[in-house]
Amino acid sequence: MGENILESMPQAIGNQGTVLIVEDDRNTAALVAKYLEREGFSTVVVHDGGQAIPAADDCNPVFVILDVMLPNLDGWAICRALRSSSDVPVLMLTAREEEADRVAGLAMGADDYVVKPFSPRELVERVKAILRRSRPVAPAVMAVLSYAGLELDPEKRRVTRNGKLVTLTTWEYKLLHALMSSPGKAFSRDELLSQCYQNSEAVIDRVIDVHIGKLRQKIEDDPSRPCFIQTVRGHGYAFSEHLGE
After folding, report:
1. Looking at 91, 114, 134, which one is the last position of a domain?
2. Are residues 124 and 162 in the same domain?
3. Is the pLDDT score of 19 beyond 80?
4. In terms of pTM, does the model score above 0.90?
5. Which of 20, 89, 121, 168 could connect to 111 by a Cys-Cys bridge, CB 3.0–4.6 Å?
6. Beta sheet of 229-232, edge-to-edge order
7. Is position 112 within any domain?
8. pLDDT in tens, 145-160
9. SS3 66
């Protein structure tokens, strides 16, 4: 039996939950941890990408701050691995500010994207804002949405197609829920962005097209000829209102 990875990690105890910081620059990691701890968070810090997933398994974080450029395993790979089994919010840090990098990170399911150098105080406020949005308060009972074999259960946050479970990322689920809740309504890309990335300046509308493409791959019989999610040219997308007729 291997040694618990947390035994050798810098960490502090707080009452707001644990934030996992994956950052190879020790000064940056220490500064971010200091600001988070002031706000009542626990912190766990790792400096090697290869330690990120074991650390997440051990500490069960409420939030992950993830550098892109890391030794042994980069931030893209770590984000993909986290999203395969968890909806934990992820904020990615990078020294690159190209649009393609932002699209890639957000399309993988990251909740926000911050370019270095950054203000640690602003970073902590972003963490708190994302956590507020991801922790619904006293949700009302919501009806199951069902169209032509596609079913979305808001209470269980579960999607099935012809009785088989469909595994979606957080943002794919949010987009599908918005579209299925208003069949026939044409949503603009900006409206759909607001469903997923509220108050995030890092987001551009192209990421919606990426999410929709991946969503179609998971729910459509023929993604090239979608029957559920229709493209509204020059505007955005709509969920078909004629299913089952």
Report:
1. 134
2. no
3. yes
4. no
5. 89
6. 187-188, 236-239, 229-232
7. yes
8. 999 899 999 888 899 9
9. strand
